[in-house]
């Protein structure tokens, strides 16, 4: 799954069988939607330089989790033929995307005009 969160994570989201396919689908969506949004008078944020903020993070995160959850993760990783780290990263990423999408949907629903 690929998104452009700065432009609305519920609007600019695409998927594919691989990361490359997801990015290609996102690029096609971007080329299609941005002109329409601008035509409708939507203001889009300028691209942000992400290098500086991201460079402060190492990519290493140590978590303390319950033993039962650790065991379940290990079991699922084995079934999926991947490492616990890869599985945990995928699950965290998916959960974060769902959380952002839900928050965006709730925000839009709260600001939407009521249906008569």
Explain what the structure shows:
- The chain has 116 residues and is mainly alpha-helical.
- The protein folds into 2 domains: 1-44, no CATH class; 62-116.
- It is built from 4 helices and 2 strands, in the order E-E-H-H-H-H.
- Helix 3 packs across helix 4.
- The longest helix has 28 residues, at 84-111.
- The protein is elongated.
- 3% of the residues are buried.
How would you briefly describe this protein structure?
The chain is mainly α and 116 residues long. The protein has helices spanning 19-39, 51-55, 67-80, 84-111, and strands at residues 2-3, 13-14.
Shape: elongated
With strands numbered from the N-terminus, the spatial order across the biggest sheet is 1-2
What is the tally of helical segments?
A: 4
Estimated structural class: mainly alpha
Give the total of beta strands. Answer: 2
Radius of gyration: 18 Å
> Can you write the helix and strand succession as a string?
EEHHHH
- Measured as a percent range, the helix fraction is 55-70%
Report how far the terminal alpha carbons are from each other. 36 Å
The unreliable regions are none
Strand content: under 5%
Average predicted local confidence, pLDDT: 84
What count of domains describes the coordinates?
2
Report on the biggest sheet.
Answer: 2 strands, antiparallel
């Amino acid at each position: 799954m690929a998104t452009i969160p700065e432009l609305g994570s519920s609007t600019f989201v695409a998927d594919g069988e691989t990361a490359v396919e997801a990015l290609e689908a996102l690029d096609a969506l971007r080329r299609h939607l941005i002109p329409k949004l601008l035509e409708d008078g939507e203001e889009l944020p300028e691209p942000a330089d992400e290098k500086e903020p991201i460079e402060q993070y190492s990519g290493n995160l140590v978590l303390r989790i319950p033993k039962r959850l650790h065991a379940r993760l290990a079991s699922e990783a084995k079934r999926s033929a991947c490492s616990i780290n890869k599985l945990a990263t995928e699950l965290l990423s998916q959960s974060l995307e769902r959380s952002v999408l839900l928050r965006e949907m709730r925000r839009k629903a709260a600001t939407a005009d009521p249906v008569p």
